[in-house]
Amino acid sequence: MGDPGGSAPHAAGLIEEDVGSTWKLGYVRPRGPMGRGMMRELGIFLAGAVLAASAWAAHAEDASAPPPPPEDWSLHFQSTVIGQGYPGFPSTVQGPNSLPAHGEVRETISGTAFIGRRMPWEGGELYFNPEIEQGFGLARTSGLAGFPNGEAQKAGFETPKPNVARLFLRQTFGLGADRETLELDQNQLGDTIDISRITVTAGKVSIPDFFDDNTYSHDPRTQFMNWALMDAGAYDYAADQKGYTDGLVLELNQKDWALRGGYFLVPKVSNGRDLETRIGKFGGYNVELETRYQLFSQPGKFRVLGFANRVFAGSYRETLANPAFGTDIALTRSDRTKYGFVLNLEQALSDDVGLFSRYSWNDGKEEIMSFTDIDQSFSLGTSVKGTSWDRPDDTVGLAGVVNFLSSAQRDFLAAGGLGILIGDGQLNYAPEGILETYYSWQVVKPLSLSADYQFFVNPAYNQDRGPVHVFSLRAHLAF
User: Fold this and answer.
1) DSSP-derived pairing of the beta strands 191-194 and 24-29
2) CA distance 206 to 230
3) Which helix (H) or strand (E) holds 441?
4) Which is it for the CA torsion 244, 451, 359, 406, positive or negative?
5) Is the CB of residue 421 less than 8 Å from the CB of residue 141?
6) Are 76 and 127 in contact (CB under 8 A)?
7) Nearest Cα to 371, choosing from 210, 275, 234?
8) Could you tell me if 84 and 103 are in contact, meaning their C-beta atoms sit under 8 angstroms apart?
9) CB atoms within 10 A of CB 54
10) 41 vs 48: CA distance, rounded Å
11) Is 386 domain-assigned?
12) What is the arithmetic mean of pLDDT over 1-23?
């Protein structure tokens, strides 16, 4: 994904990386201005598609074989390309973190390998996820609190950038009684294990892999793309600019419920690249209770999540109270605790239709540390499989979300302050409203294509801007 703003030309060529004794993974080296990024990203994506199709064919040849014993290896891959743009929209103000009113187009691409290995001792598993990323979100990932591309990071790259996304050890302790089968999947070894169990995970992780899950809206690579729909909008979970952190997760699982908690490193400063390693003094604490139930013979889940981050952060009110500070919130940074909660519901209405909703809130006193400029958020949506029109692997989704700011952050932005993603220099406040719909078409088993539309009212909470119409095309390959 390139930066459509333009850059110096690059030499063309195909780069090949050995990924095993049989396969090579190729990507196209960029050439020409970054505004031509979509063609380049398509080349990268098709290289992965060739690899996936071959792997899938090999898998199909073995489909008639008897079920194997518990796997010792888990090898999976995904690549996602998103092209996203919007036309010009009405605006009477423009600030440092505003969405440009003239419209633009951006692209993002990611490629991830999910490698898992069973350890020599019982219950031990090691996972490693190398990743390549390229591109930027709209306005270089700024201008909207509910940002429209869940693949867009705050640290974007004009050329493919390798990164270690995850590296963690998982240890499971079975507690006996009934057992269940876990299918081989990304970061999961196929096995039959106790339903009643304790699982400990330690290493480099992404917090949403464990907390705030939702069957119908949690993966921007295949489902809703908006940040305030893939996760709870006001959930300011600990993460660096790429969305990862180091930490420890403990989970007690039972048939009808699960209780999980975790401690994670927080960034040293708001929206920082580096994590604070003074363990015990600073850190993010999360606790979530998940209950499972049946309603009219259909499964449902309800999750209650609480979080508290002890961080080195500035105060909106303290900044505004001292005229000498202007809007430089960094001058008020000190040891503070930011806290909040999430209520998360998912309910199947039939085998093909599901409903979901989230409500989230944080105290809104200190600057946002990791996620986005939302202090309160409510979302409601539905997901429908295409069985009724003979496309059972297709999905259509429709959801709405309303985001709010605390009075302290409103006043700070109105005075010209900047948040992580937003800041128009002035603010005529109103809640930010978003409607998103998408259709995901499974072309073949490893490959799906999606069309997505998002409508924004009061973008970045400003009545003097918008509405904004965002259109997206997404290609996702996974095997």
Assistant:
1) unpaired
2) 14
3) strand 432-444
4) positive
5) yes
6) no
7) 234
8) no
9) 13
10) 11
11) yes
12) 37
Q: How far is CA 275 from CA 13, 301, 344, in A?
A: 36, 33, 28
For residue 294, the domain's CATH number is 2.40.160.180
CB 208 within 8 A of CB 237: yes
Q: Are strands 298-313 and 191-194 parallel, antiparallel or unpaired?
A: unpaired
Is the preceding peptide bond at 467 cis, omega within 30 degrees of 0? yes
Answer yes or no: is 172 within a domain. yes
Length of the chain: 479
What does the CA dihedral 141, 203, 361, 290 come to, rounded to 10 degrees?
130
Query: Which is nearest to 115 in space by CA: 76, 69, 172?
Result: 76
- Position 105: which residue type? V
Q: Above 80 in pLDDT, residue 339?
A: yes
Residue 257, classified by CB atoms within 10 Å of its CB into exposed (0-12), middle (13-18) or buried (19+), is middle
Task: For residue 92, give the 3-state DSSP assignment.
Answer: coil
**Beta strands 24-29 and 447-457, pairing class:** unpaired
> Which residue shows structure tokens 């209405």?
349
21: in domain: yes
Per-residue pLDDT tens for 279-316? 989 999 999 999 999 999 999 999 999 999 999 999 99
DSSP code at position 381: E
Q: Is beta strand 447-457 parallel, antiparallel or unpaired with respect to 432-444?
A: antiparallel
Domain that holds residue 261: 13-61+68-478
CA angle 213, 349, 287 (to 5 degrees): 20
Q: Residue 166 pairs with which residues in a beta bridge?
A: 129
Amino acid at site 140: R
Which long-range CB contacts under 8 A does 269-272 form with residues at least 24 apart?
Answer: 269/312, 269/313, 269/330, 269/333, 270/313, 270/314, 270/367, 270/368, 270/369, 270/420, 271/154, 271/241, 271/368, 271/369, 271/370, 271/420, 272/240, 272/241
| Residue with the two structure tokens 């109270």 | 321
Look at residue 127 and tell me if it is in a domain.
yes
Domain count, the chain: 1
Which 3 state secondary structure label does DSSP give 172? strand
HSE toward the beta carbon, residue 312, CA cutoff 13 A: 16
What is the model's pLDDT at position 334?
A: 96
Q: pLDDT value at position 9?
A: 36
For the chain, how are helix, strand and coil distributed in percent, rounded to 5? 15, 50, 40
3-state secondary structure at position 407 = helix
Q: For residue range 221-260, what is the model confidence (pLDDT) as tens digits?
A: 999 999 999 999 999 999 998 899 999 999 999 999 999 9
Q: What are the CA-CA distances from residue 476 to residues 24, 91, 103, 377 (Å)?
A: 20, 34, 25, 28
Q: What is the pTM of this model?
A: 0.84
Dist. CA 355–CA 127, nearest whole Å: 32
Token duo for residue 250: 């403990």
Residues 448, 456 contacting (CB under 8 angstroms): no
